[in-house]
Every structure is written in C-alpha cells, then in structure tokens.
Write a structure and sequence with these properties.
The protein is 29% helix and 18% strand. The protein is of the alpha/beta class and 319 residues long. The protein has 2 domains: 135 residues; 144 residues, Glycogen Phosphorylase B (Rossmann fold, 3-Layer(aba) Sandwich), CATH 3.40.50.2000. The strands form 4 sheets. Strands 12-11-8-13-14-15 form a 6-stranded parallel sheet, sandwiched between helices. Strands 4-1-7-6 form a 4-stranded parallel sheet, covered by helices on one side. It has a 3-stranded mixed sheet with strand order 2-3-5, with no helix packed on it. A hairpin with a 4-residue loop joins β2 and β3. α5 packs parallel to α6.
Length: 319
C-alpha cells in the first residue's frame, strides 16, 4: 500500500512478520467475526494505519474480521444494523482464510501490541504478530497514502460502487446527519464547552439553515442527505430542497459521500472519512474543540456556529 512505488523496487514481504488490525478495544475478536467493536469509520483508522505500517516495514497484513454482531442498532431500530456481513473481501495479497487461522495460531504467543495515535510512531517487531490498535482516531501519517487507501477500499468491497463515481468531484453536495446512538443536545451551550462529547447530535436547525443557504448558492447542484435516521426526522431538511440518498449499503453510501464536490459533515468519523477520501471542501459545526482537519492543507474548510452566521465562509467554498 505504498504511496509511491517505483516498478520493480518494492521489497518482498517478510513472511515471518505479520500485522493484524484489532478493530475495537471493547470487541471480542474471534478472528473471523467480532462481538461488538468499532463501527465502520472507527474501524478504518485502525485498518489503514495497520496497512500503512505493513507497507513501510514490508510485513504482511492479516485481513481483519469485518463481520460484527452488535445488539445496539437492533434495539434502536436503526436502518443500518452495522453487521458488515459480506460487505468486504480480503485485499489481494492479504492473509485470509485457512492461512489466516494457521498464521494466528502459530504467532499468537509472540504477539505485541502497537498503538497508533501516540506521540511517537509505532515500530513493527520483526518475526512477531503485531496487533495494531488505535489509542485515538487520527489521519496523521495517512495523507500520503490517500491514493493507495482509495485503491484498497475499491479492492476490498463486495457492495456496489456508485455509478459514475469520482472522488470529490461528482458535481453534487453531500450532507451527513448522524443520529443513531448519538444523544440529543437540549442545551446548545453544551456544544461550546471546553470538552464537548463527540457523540452528540448536531441540532437539526443547523442543517436546515445550512441546506437552505447552500440551495440558494448552488441552484445547479443536487444536495443529497445521508443519514441513519428515520425519514420523518429528516423531513425539515429535505423540505429545503435536498434529497435522501440510501443505497442500502454503508460502504456504498460512504463512497457516494466521498464523491461529492462539497461535504457537510456531522460529528461522526464516518463523515471525516468521506472528507479524507474525497479531499473536497467541507463544512463542519464550529465548537471549542474542532476535530483534526481530514483534507489536505490547501483544501478549503470552514466551521460554522449553530446559527450558521458568516455566509462569507460559504462564498469561499466553490466546488
């Protein structure tokens, strides 16, 4: 997964050194399925950092268990159950199937844990099973691999790629509204506390005002809303001239978001991955602790307060 590789210069992988992405510190990893664990956006941090480490140290990557059994989405009646069953296949060259079982059995007693997101970059231990976990969700170190990550995603998914897919230049706007297990903020002042919880729902009024403003500025572009919420909850936003996009697949929806020429994000890592992959201009809620910028430094990004003041910011974003 090297960002830039000259033909014929790639060193062969060290077959005795393997890297295994551990998708969720709270998960029970049974090697071929997970009980609980991270959702898709959080999984991607661990998975792609592990792939980048394996590339840098010429190690082999073990395909992780994407299939996850979670009871929360079922109890909440969410449209996506987040099982990821049959959504992914092993990437070419990754260890999977019977070879994965044999490799894990052979190396498990020689395992070491590597944490990504720490101040210092983890170092692969040769001849060992390197379990990669995320101490925080960060794109640091992944920007040079954006092209390779896009290629790896397209090489691992079984679900459909959106028609005429183009990274960050699809000629439409995407709005992500995360509801699901996120909690509703009744006191809007909590948004600007010193350490706001990352798992709060952005008030629907913010999306309504923003979509209304974008509709006036981009009359020639369609605005698609991506959400895990019920359509009746999204109706006030859709009434501003937006359309609900639902493919039935979390990864297809993510690729469609990453194809937009402008993105309105939520507090979800799912949004941030769409911005990272698409590398397009984006708009986020302004808080006292805005998250790490997912796009390249030269890509416009703005943070708007709850009252959506500051239309001059919108004028900077010309997809």
């Amino acid at each position: 997964m090297r960002a830039k590789v000259s033909a014929g210069l790639r060193e062969p992988a060290d077959r005795s050194t393997v890297v295994y992405p551990f998708l969720g510190t709270d998960a029970v990893d049974l090697w071929f399925l997970r009980l609980s664990g991270y959702g898709l956006g959080n999984c991607f941090y661990t998975y792609f950092h592990a792939a980048a480490l394996a590339d840098r140290y010429h190690a082999r990557l073990i395909a992780p268990p994407w299939f996850s059994l979670k009871i929360g989405p079922l109890l909440r009646g969410e449209s996506s159950k987040r099982l990821y069953w049959r959504m992914f296949k092993p990437y070419s060259g990754d260890i999977h199937g019977v070879e994965k079982l044999v490799t894990l059995l052979r190396t498990y007693r020689k395992r070491v844990v590597l944490k990504v997101g720490e101040p210092s970059e983890p170092v692969i231990v040769k001849g060992a099973l390197n379990l990669v976990v995320s101490s925080r969700f960060t794109f640091v170190g992944l920007h040079p691999y954006r092209g390779a990550i896009r290629e790896r995603i397209l090489g691992t998914i079984n679900d459909p790629v959106p028609e005429n897919h183009r990274w960050g230049s699809g000629g439409y706007l995407a709005v992500h509204i995360r509801l699901g297990d996120f909690f509703e903020v009744t006191d809007h002042a909590l948004v600007n506390t010193a350490h706001p919880s990352p798992n709060f729902r952005i008030p629907m009024s913010w999306y309504i005002d923003l979509v209304s403003a974008l509709r006036k500025r981009h009359r020639d572009k369609r605005i698609f809303v991506f959400s895990d919420g019920e359509e009746k909850l999204l109706k006030p936003v859709l009434d501003q001239g937006a359309e609900l996009y639902r493919s039935g697949s979390d990864i297809t929806d993510l690729l469609a978001m990453a194809g937009a020429s402008m993105l309105v994000g939520s507090n979800s890592t799912y949004s941030r991955w769409a911005a990272f992959l698409g590398n397009m201009p984006s708009i986020w809620l302004k808080t006292s602790a805005n998250p790490e910028k997912p796009t390249d430094l030269e890509i416009p990004i703005c943070y708007l307060p709850l009252d959506c003041s500051g239309p001059a910011f919108l004028d900077r974003l010309s997809p």
